[in-house]
Amino acid sequence: MALVALLSNPGSTGNIAMLPHIRNFCAHRADVFHYELENAEHIAEALESIARVKPKVLIVNGGDGTVQHVLTELYHGGHFGKFPPPVAVLPNGKTNLIALDLGVTGDPIAALERILELAETGLQDHIVQREMIALSKGDRDNRPVLGMFLGGAGFADTILYCRNTIYPLGLPNGLSHFVAGAVVLFALLFNVRGKYLPPRPSPVHVSLIRSGEEPRRFAFLIVTTLEKMLLSSRLQHRENMGMKLLAVERSAKALFSALWAGVIGKLGQKPVNGVHIEHGDIIRIESERANIVLDGETFCAVTGHPIVLRSTLPMPFLRLAA
Description:
alpha+beta
């Protein structure tokens, strides 16, 4: 029986430089079962092998997309029965939103050492429960994809613009995210369009906001089960309340109001015109054509094929900061 199991995706951006160091670390630790994926199609096979060693913690070494595939297979595959081990996430990839929410930042080797220390001394105070976002095309019989952070409208545009236009420039990740966000915000505020700018967001109808209302253009749309991704302290401290939704209408006043309320920590504490903050167990997103990004994977809501989001039962995760 291994103390912890580490599932690595060599294709993740951070692993290009870091994986040799992680391999060396694991080679000197008999209590670490290290499994390297060939590709995402082998995640089920990997989890079957990991389940046999009965680890106290399952550590995912990859970006948010890798974590999404692992969570989806954990949820549907049942490889660990009714009691899967808590999931820990190493800081890796381009974004690391899930690792950030779980208090894992900085050096992956230091994070590995801390996880092993907790596995030896006691995990209980560090286990947190997180609901998942189950995304489907509205058909309950299909296999939903699970994730923890969804961006739509301008947020999806920012992610895709950063991925397709800014990352190829070779800028540092932090600077790439800042540049992409600034360009998308500029295009939204001043209604500027061009060959090298993001497209105009399509009208989107979100059924959670109000039943029967007309589709509208949102500047930003976020759905998450992560605590740290919404800038509202009121929402962050209400655990297991379903999915949290933040939608900002496409107007300069709504955008600036949302940004200012977020900066001063007041977002969600009082109503702001054009800013919708809700939570619920089912969210339906409809549009003529709108991109939706769930933990790095892109989906499209089109006429007749809405995106349906449902919250799942909580799953255990390991948070390094107690």
